Every structure is written in structure tokens, then in C-alpha cells.
Amino acid sequence: MNECPRQQINLTQCSCTYEPCERKGLCCECLRYHRDRSELPACYFTPEVERTYDRSIARFLKSSR
Ligand code: SF4
């Protein structure tokens, strides 16, 4: 994976608690990964929902009502 000059700055705003992920702080990679699975990145979810690791659009819509 290429180095991102924004990675450290992005990490200060990253709400993802899935520690083993190699995409943390690489927002373009994160978005592409989840978009390809019809999902959204962790930062779209409340902390409670984020911790379930359910990144589906359906879960997002359910939690944003
Ligand atoms: S939201 Fe997904 S791709 Fe992004 S850092 Fe967390 S686990 Fe990785």
C-alpha cells in the first residue's frame, strides 16, 4: 500500500475500533473497500453501532431514524 501524507492526521479523526485493519487512516482505501461491499465506513455510524462491525447501508439507515 502506498504511503498517504494524510494518514496520521486522518487517524486522529478515525472512529473505527477494528484494530487489525490495514486501511485505518487511509480513507480512500477504506471507502473503496466498503463501497465494493455495499457498505459504509465506520465513521458513518454511532459508537454503539460501530462496535458491532455491521457496516451495511441497511444498518446505517436503521440507526439514523
Ligand atoms: S471502517 Fe473498515 S476499512 Fe475502514 S478502517 Fe475500519 S475496518 Fe478498516
Number of strands: 0
Low-pLDDT regions: none
Major pleated sheet: none
Mean pLDDT: 95
Count of the separate structural domains: 1
CA-based gyration radius: 12 Å
Subunit organisation of the chains: single chain
Return the string of H and E elements: HHHH
Concise summary:
The chain is mainly alpha-helical. Helix content is 38%, strand content 0%.
Please outline the helices and strands.
Elements (H helix, E strand, L loop, with lengths): L6 H5 L15 H9 L11 H4 L6 H7 L2
Q: What features would you describe in this structure?
A:
This protein has 65 residues and is mainly alpha-helical. It has one domain (7-63). It has 4 helices and no strands. It is globular, with a radius of gyration of 12 Å. The mean pLDDT is 95.
Keywords:
65 residues, mainly alpha, 4 helices, 38% helix, globular, binds iron/sulfur cluster
